[in-house]
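Pilot study result, target chain (126 residues):
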Amino acid sequence: MARVNITPPMGAPLDAYYYNRAATGIHDALPAKAIVLSEQGVRLVSITYDLSAMPDGIPAQARQIIARQNEIPSSRVTIGATHSHVAPVALSGFSGYQLKGRCRESNQDDAARLPNPIGQAATSRK
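Predicted structure:
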């Protein structure tokens, strides 16, 4: 099993509050954890991450990275959230959150950053 740190920077909006509450510290790092299974030449990857949810585009981009770097078809990659309500929130489109100012900017920055470390989890040896 491999682990990659996906902890966002300070200021990331926190989940479960439905108002602009930004992270002011880190209690525990947030990992993306991956396991690569192989049998008779067929490999698949399963990745979990400690967030409540993630916009569809981020896992899709991570699957493309995994396919390109590991020659594992994206159809053999599962990516899902542990559904933690005490982690930063990753949003796109409609939600109950009305992020403003730095919380909104931080969320957009994090959404752009996440596909690479999630994709790297499949090749990490940590």
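One observation from the pilot: The chain has three helices and four strands. A full batch analysis is planned for the follow-on phase.
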